[in-house]
Design goal:
alpha+beta; five-stranded antiparallel sheet; three-stranded antiparallel sheet; 5 helices; 8 strands; globular
């Protein structure tokens, strides 16, 4: 298929100046496996996953969207429709996470390497944060990353999130170099300001 392939429009959930947040269309899973399920993209997220596990994540996205729950959406360029990544919301559920985080919303993203450094992650994450506060009435939204993942926490800074070191925790799903999990957050009041 090739990483430059363009897919269909999908069901558009939101748009930004340059991006479309949309649901899956045929071919997205294969494109994702080829272009996003790579050591480069997933170096801070535990590395590439098996095709079955990636397919399960697509099913979870589809089900959550269908049920009106917080979820991730695929990101495509408005011009041309090229799939560039994903962004959205999920609930924090690792048993190792502090009680204050359990069940709370977190924002996350992943962008294909050839599109890094263009501001797509914060552009899409602003849409996700708006949904968290407006549609899902979250009092606070968290972000999680590792100390090594400097680009990720720089995006969090751009979003107005602040570091909440007291909520950091070790997550055995990630290697020692990416532990402890760093926690960031932004309240509804901070977002509205």
């Amino acid at each position: 298929m090739g990483c430059g392939a363009v897919t269909g429009a999908g069901s558009v959930v939101a748009t930004t100046e340059r991006l479309v947040l949309r649901t899956e269309v045929p071919g997205d899973l294969e494109l994702w496996l080829e272009c996003m399920n790579t050591p480069e993209v997933l170096r801070f997220l535990g590395g590439p996953q098996g095709a079955d596990k990636v397919a399960e994540s697509f099913i979870r996205m589809r089900e959550a969207h269908g049920e009106g729950r917080p979820c991730f959406y695929l990101l495509a360029l408005r011009e041309g429709g090229t799939l560039v990544g994903r962004c959205g919301l999920s609930t924090i559920d690792p048993p190792e996470a502090p009680e204050a985080l359990q069940g709370q919303l977190q924002v996350g993203w992943g962008i294909r390497p050839e599109f890094w450094g263009r501001g797509y992650a914060p552009e899409a994450a602003r849409v996700a944060l708006a949904a968290a506060f407006e549609r899902f009435a979250a009092p606070v939204v968290y972000g999680q990353t590792s100390e090594r993942n400097i680009p990720s926490w720089r995006v969090m800074e751009k979003l107005g999130m602040r570091r909440l070191a007291e909520l950091d925790y070790p997550d055995p799903d990630y290697p020692p170099d990416d532990n402890p999990t760093m926690v960031w957050g932004i309240t509804r009041e901070e977002w509205c300001a």
